[in-house]
Design brief:
The N and C termini lie close together (11 Å). This protein has 2 domains: 254 residues, Ribonuclease Z/Hydroxyacylglutathione hydrolase-like (Metallo-beta-lactamase, Chain A), CATH 3.60.15.10; 40 residues, no CATH class. The protein has 304 residues and is α/β, with parallel strands linked by helices. Helix 1 links the parallel strand 3 and strand 4. Strands 6-5-4-3-2-1-18 form a 7-stranded mixed beta sheet. The protein contains 11 helices and 18 strands. The model has no long low-confidence stretch (mean pLDDT 96). Bound molecules: zinc ion. Zinc ion binds next to helix 2.
Length: 304
């Protein structure tokens, strides 16, 4: 079981149906939970999937449309009732903070934990760096200010080649800097290059969450090669005009972004309620990009 995985809480779009819940996703990285969007019902789905409220540290809102936000007052009230401790940070636009402060000031006045807001803007910026995970925003094109989020693991340290370090007499107190890429200089001035003393670590894993947006060909270069990309697929090509008018994407357009970014896998979602068969999204995206995953509430996808 991977220690970096994506839990889908809701993968429907604006109109609630009995089949899908509104948008919400939980990114689990080494035991810490990061929520992206919190549509209505997210707190129930969170519990159904046996996720632990105590491990939730950050909530990232992509934009201020109801299907991505309306679950938040309920979730925060529940956290307060449950006696959550520590700190929870909500990353949102300025207006999001103003609205939430008003609602929560009325319904959840007594919090057992520290609730903090981080004001984001529609810009490319690293907004969180925990040392092991970095989160950056990328502006998307929707009817209101919207950002996508890219979760990137810190580049791991290089692996020590014990035999070579022993041979060249590298002392223990130098190991940290050798792992970080430094060369070793012997007492006689001989320089032993780092590549002899270490082997490269596996690259850090990456997840991109891109919802909601018009098709943006330029997005691929901004996101770069990620292991897993969630890109909204609200419509199929039969509704391409609708997608353009409503600032959403079709499955084929999402697949083009995944292909051009060099992503390994594409996770579809934000399915419009007008379609009954979700496999059609995978089929249409699959014409452009080979590795497409069908989404559903309760799905867990490893980032690898
Ligand atoms: Zn939406």
């Amino acid at each position: 079981m991977s220690d970096f995985r994506i839990h889908t809480l809701g993968c429907g779009s604006a109109k609630p149906t009995v089949k899908h819940q509104p948008s919400s996703t939980v990114v689990e990285h080494r035991g810490t939970l990061y929520m992206v969007d919190c549509g209505e019902g997210a707190q129930l789905q969170f519990q159904k999937q046996r996720l632990k409220f105590g491990r939730l540290r950050h909530i990232f809102l992509t934009h201020l449309h109801g299907d991505h936000v309306l679950g938040l007052p309920g979730l925060v009230s529940t956290l307060a009732l449950g006696g959550k401790e520590g700190k929870l940070t909500i990353h949102t636009f300025k207006e999001g903070k103003e609205i939430l402060e008003q609602i929560l000031g009325f319904f959840a006045r007594e919090l057992s934990f520290e609730l903090d807001y981080d004001i984001i803007r529609p810009e490319e910026k690293v907004i969180l760096d925990t040392g092991s995970l970095r989160v950056r925003t990328i502006p998307l094109k929707h009817r209101v200010p919207t950002v996508g989020y890219v979760f990137e693991e810190a580049e791991p340290l290089r692996h020590i080649r014990r035999d070579m370090c022993d041979f060249h007499g590298v002392p223990v107190f130098r190991m940290r800097e050798i792992k970080e890429g430094a060369d070793f200089v012997k007492a006689d001035g001989t320089v032993i290059p780092n590549e002899i003393l270490t082997s490269p670590a596996e690259p850090g894993r990456k997840y991109a969450h891109l919802s909601d947006t018009l098709y943006m060909p330029e997005l691929a270069a901004k996101v770069g090669p990620v292991d897993l990309m969630f890109h909204e697929t609200t419509y199929l090509r039969d509704n391409a005009d609708n997608a353009r008018e409503r600032f959403h994407s079709t499955a084929g357009q999402a697949a083009m972004v995944a292909r051009d970014a060099g992503a390994k896998r594409l996770l579809t979602g934000h399915y419009s309620s007008r379609y009954n068969d979700d496999s059609l999204f995978v089929k249409e995206a699959g014409e452009v990009f080979p590795c497409v995953l069908q989404n559903r509430e309760g799905l867990i996808t490893d980032v690898r």
